[in-house]
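My current task is to audit a protein record that another person submitted. I need someone to confirm that the token line plausibly describes how this chain folds. Take the sequence as given and treat only the tokens as open to question. This is what I was given:
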Amino acid sequence: MSGYQTVPSDGIVANGIKKFSYSPIQKQTDIEMVQSMSPTRLDREYLNDRNGYSSQSFTDEAEVLVNDKTGGKGKYVKAMIVSSALLFGAAVIFTVSAMNFGNPSPTPLTSDSQTTSKFDSKGRYIMSNFDKVKPMSNFLNGLGGMWGVPMWAFYVNRGQGITSFGKQNKDSAFLKFNTAEKAYQETPFIGFRTFLKGRRGINSFSTMPFYPRPTIPNDPIKRDMIIGENEMEIQEVDPANGLQTNILYFTVPEEDFPAFVRTTTFTNLDSTEILTLEVLDGLGRLIPSGLNNNALDGMGRTMEAWMNVYNVQTPITQPFFHISQDTADTAQVHMIKDGHFALSFIDGGFGEEIGPDGLHKMLPFIVDPSVVYETDTTLTDPIGFFAPDAPSVTELLLQPQGATSRTPCAFAGAKLVVPPGKSVSISTIFGHAENLETFVGTYSPKLLKPGYTSKKRAAAQHVVEQITKKVETKTSSPIFDAYVKQDFLDNVLRGGLPIALGDSEKPKIYHTFSRIHGDIERDYNFFQIDTTYFSQGPGNFRDVSQNRRLDVLHTPAVGDFNLRMFLSYVQADAYNPLTVASTNFKVPTEKLADLVSSLGVKNIDGSGSGAAAVTAVLKKAFRPGQFFKDVAAAGVSFSIGREDVLDKLMTVADQVPAAQYAQNGYWADHWTYTMDLLDNYLAVFPDKEEYVLWESEPVPFFMSPAVVKSRAERYNLVDNALKPGTSTIRVYSALSVWGEKDFSPIRQNAMNAIFSDTQYVADSAGAGGVWQRSRDLKVFTVSAIAKLTILGTLKFSTLDPYGMGVEMEGGKPGWNDAMNGLPGIVGSGMSETYEMLRILKYVKSAALKYPGRSISLPIEFSAFLADLSTALDTFFASSKDESAEFKYWDASNNAREKYRAAVVAYFDGQKTNLSSDYVVSLISKMELKVAGGIRKALATNKGLSPSYFYYECDSFEMLAVTVVSDPPQATRVAAKSFKLHTLPLFLEGPVRHMKVIENLEERRDVYQKVKNSGLYDAALKMYTLSESLVGMGQDIGRMMAFSPGWLENQSVWLHMSYKWYLELLRGGLYEEFFEEIKTGLVPFMDNKVYGRSPLEAASFIVSSAFPDPKLHGASFLARLSGSTAEMLSMWAIMMAGPTPFVLDGNNNLKLQFAPILPGWLFADDGTASFTFLGSVLVTYVNPTKTDTWKISPTSATITGVDGHTELVPGGVLGSVQAARVRNLEIKSITVFYN
């Protein structure tokens, strides 16, 4: 007899039921029972499931070596044990089951000495004992593929993993969106559950795989979470019951509807006896379609009155979940027809049942939780299934069920027979349909086809591979290579994947898959993933801009698209909208009829209504996916392929960038990423610099419903909370916004004229191209070089009263948004000063490089430049003391305020051409002024750049009341002098400072100063966001509400520390860079401390400053971080050098690889390779493994897509060869070093 039996004596069953009293005596008995077993370790093997996951090591289990009773000495057998506490009140029979075990070590992704992480043969990360280690949250990618509709899903390492999933956003959840702290606690109970009653012969057991268990030493049950690129699996090996349970999750790609697959596989570990299982497997709570998250949180009990499950005839095999009508308290009643659905079946292998229609036979569902749990509203104890007198699963599934006025569940039920050593799988598919008829008649037959889930799993992996192949890398460090791919994937999810649509000669670039993060840890954001083909969601300007930084380096067809689009968003006042969405399209009216006639539209009813329906759709703005969704809803189909339809659409349609103000202030730093876009463009197209600056399509000015107030309006006298009884100057209302009494009526009229223009293009959420007009009502545009000049100069004019940092006059701080209080206390930032200087230096260099080119600027801006030049001349003729600084500050602000008033509604329309000599002369004066401010700033911190200042107004005069109102107008003041306050060190200051230091030794000196400062966490060997902020007032921002070491207060913020490493690399500090990344780059960290997959970045790591040392080094806020952009920038420089395409002395194009690779990253055969420009395989052959910055190539070979190979002596490709590479006519390049 083999197996394990529990005979319930009072209704309490084994392994996971919480109806017992676990006393210290019982716990000690458990421990002693385990410890008494022989420590001799068995030979080990993997028990491979059908998915190929090497399942269990048994490393920490109690194992015993015994003699086989048949006489074979030394045969290994495993003792099946179980905690006595879990069997309290039950009679227990222990038996011994013979098993042969081999060697189980997981297939390593890497042999790197820096990592101890485990991966399986598929390259999936294995988190051992996942529900006992640090809590961690993550998500599936939400990728539907180009021609599919996505589903989102979040998971944690607790219970059965999935904590929430749904479509579009958190208001369309199947399993309610919960924030992280709730998810860690509730997921094991209200999420997915599995209830089993098993039998081998006369022995029976009951168990709940993955249910929380008490912690005991050497627990025989082993649980792993296996995290793949586009899937997640959990596994439990229960030797006491001879059972292995695997649950696989993935979202379905390339379908017209969103869907989510859960496959539960039961493996009989016994080699001799059949295992019979009665199974309930599914979701503890399912939210019917039509309810939003806020309503569920605030009025959950009331909302249950609307809940219904439809299609519930017995047995229930195709339940459909939705409310009957909208919950709004309005006169017009909106009926709800769309709903969530569930299907379940035995999937593949043993036990699979196929009906006469060739489809899987469906398993029945329980949708009424009272049938499973009876009166246990905690959802912990499935009394209805596990009680001694409970009916069989077959009988249970036929019981009457309530399907209304309660939150339903979705448990599929089955009785399974699992032969020895075999597996049986149940797949359950959750999805969403427009109505019940579509679900039953169209979707269900497709989902029930044999092999559907395995094909879709492979397709889901293919979707990711098609994305990540653009950065395929092969070095001596497989974990580094895999990390690059994962970072690229996450970068795409934040910034979008650029694809070329329409005319191949003049393609339109469209970004798909992008979205703002809003996961269960970043619960403050409301994410949106369109339920369409080519899905996308809006993001923030800063995020999208930086995450598209490398687009042109992996997709050359992008060209200047990103640069010009983000320059277009720069307003006349040098600020920008917050929200950026994928571009909209609009078909010109005069081209519409011909386009529709070319699409092969099939008539809906023979009356020509198909063409009319398509015409109606195309009269509005659209995105590719929305177009196909709208015409499908109208019943339209085409006689040509959808790819051809899309190409014709994109060739004819006009493309319009889409943005939206959507904020309560203007961020001080968003514009600082523009130069990165230009730098990377020039790294691929250096021969097109003059074209992109002067000749490319000119860019407009975005117009937001908010303007920065003048100092007289935004400087107010308020009570000083820090010094009761006194007053102080604060800037608590920096902007005048549409709807407020002081908003400019002429600006409002100008914007209304834009919105009412028949050519205005925007999406349903309001994101569109709100372009400022000139007085003739035409969109006003300038060249790229003119926009850069305007941007850099206006930021220069915003220098603070001491001429050091750029003021936060827009009411928002810079990159570190936890410094939200700084704008209110007249704050400024040095980081923005360095970025402003980069722009000015570049504009000056362009003017010098192309001396025959003038810069054409709005006449209003030319007047501003004249005023600014006068202020500079006056300053340089002065003593340059504190008084002179204040007078210059006052004059530059006056000039800027005068300019902004002149263009508050319209541009005049006239332009002034400024000669290159004038531009060079003026910018030279600006550079001189900035240099003086930098010197003063460095002096405040012993040579290290500060990041932040704030200014206390210690002298002012009262201004007259201009508006009589109730409540009364704020007391306005005019500042007369300021007192400087410098904040402690933040890493951002030195990071940005490094960008403008031209001397290598000066950069090395800054590096050493930073490492010797409070910014370096010596215990972690990482760099923190700030040094200690002890002593700072609460008024600098919410970071003072956080404990040191947590969030933005002195933690290791990966985005900023990666920026630091990037500047070391850019700055030529190669040895220092490679030494730092050994502890600072995620794949090389101790993943047990880090707390998640070493392939995934997080936002921050708890530093040694945090009071609880148990969390030091742990990571939080998963993925979708700006660190991915910094990492990919590092990767690009490491693999190809900073500027692979260059011009020689005769302005001929060259391709010159200059990788920055240390010898240890070359494989044993001396090679390292990567994918260049998204498709060209580049291999370096370095037999001596010499650091590449110390040697030069001797030759190269290039192989075209036609198979022709040619030798290139010296390894530098000439203009013809370089152009062929850039045009993707070359398949591979091999570069040889001596």
Notes: DSSP finds 32 helices and 53 strands in the chain.
